[in-house]
Design brief:
By secondary structure, the protein is of the alpha+beta class. The protein has three helices and seven strands; from the N terminus they run E-H-E-E-E-H-E-H-E-E. The model has no long low-confidence stretch (mean pLDDT 86).
Length: 159
């Protein structure tokens, strides 16, 4: 892990302009990485209402020195026991510094605050770095919990 500048994680950002910019960059990267491309309109959850309290939340991670957004992620309540981690992305220039792990810990804390016992995540099989990170955090295969055609790897962890 490289040294990193201090960061801040801000909740409640589902409809912010910074979130829209981060998601646009994230979706563009997915479109280039995923065989056949990526269309966010085809995902099961696409609106901010699904990641806004009480249904979920959207987090932005910013660099405290520059104020730049360096990562984003969201949680979405599936049911009383399970909350899905979604849209976890770190800007390419900030990868390899532990930001994704820090963000996932914050998202898992939000899962706990909802009173849920299990965090789940779905990934495209081409997102090998994300799959490895979640497996290293103790996430194990679970049954699919949505019909999103871009994701076929479903992982979960009891918190």
């Amino acid at each position: 892990m490289n040294s990193t500048a201090p960061v801040r994680i801000v909740e409640g950002q589902a409809a912010s302009e910074h979130t829209l910019q981060a998601l646009s960059a994230y979706f563009s990267e997915l479109d280039h990485r995923i065989d056949g491309g990526f269309d966010p309109e085809l995902t099961e959850v696409s609106g901010p209402e699904d990641v806004t309290p009480p249904h979920g939340d959207f987090f932005l991670m910013t660099d405290l020195v520059t104020g730049a957004v360096i990562a984003c992620g969201a949680v979405r309540r599936i049911d009383d026991e399970r909350v899905e981690l979604r849209r976890i992305w770190v800007t390419p220039e900030h990868r390899g510094r532990g930001h994704a792990r820090t963000l996932v810990r914050a998202l898992e804390n939000k899962v706990r605050s909802f009173g849920a016992s299990t965090a789940v995540v779905s990934l495209n099989p081409e997102m090998t770095e994300g799959i490895a990170m979640f497996r290293n955090r103790g996430y194990e295969p679970v049954e699919p919990f949505h019909r999103d055609t871009t994701a076929s790897v479903f992982l979960g962890r009891v918190l």
